[in-house]
Design a protein that fits this description.
Helix 1 (22-33) crosses helix 3 (53-75). The chain is mainly alpha-helical. The chain has a domain at 2-97: Orthogonal Bundle (Arc Repressor Mutant, subunit A). It has helices spanning 22-33, 40-47, 53-75, 98-111, 115-130, 145-152, 159-162, and strands at residues 2-4, 10-11, 37-39, 81-84, 87-90, 96-97. The N and C termini lie far apart (62 Å). The radius of gyration is 22 Å and the shape is globular. Helices cover 52% and strands 11% of the residues.
Amino acid sequence: MQVRVLGSPAILDVPDGQHVRPQAVEFLVYLIVRGGSAYQYEVIDDLMPEPPRRLAAQRLHTYTYNLRRICTLIGGENTYLQLKRHRYTLNRDAFDIDLWTVRDAITAAQRATEPAVRVAALRRAVDVYRRPRRVPVVRAAPRHRDARVRDRSPDTRGPACRSQ
């Protein structure tokens, strides 16, 4: 499953008609930037400090469900995200993440003892950073029913009302 973090964060290859919650993407990016894992209280403190802890935990479970569902739709059955003893952990082998690829390449370059190996690793990092960014299709969120009703109501401040 491919995830882009460099540039505009996105989960790539989301099937048409499937809704990915923006907060689920934010949660995924948070885990990615932290190396793939974080305790629940850390996520809540960093991403949802406003609501009470119980409500924040419920929301986090909703985002986790959405993320797992989207991952399964894209990549099939796998363990993408685990929650064990209040710690969320991404299955690193289930993801192709540009940031992790760049970090791994830079680490390989730092550890290399031969110049050719070092150069190849650095080129790999630069290639991932420079590769064309696939733009995900952004779908408009469904509008709330009240907004649709309000938009259809006549404008009482329009010229017809003023001329009376």
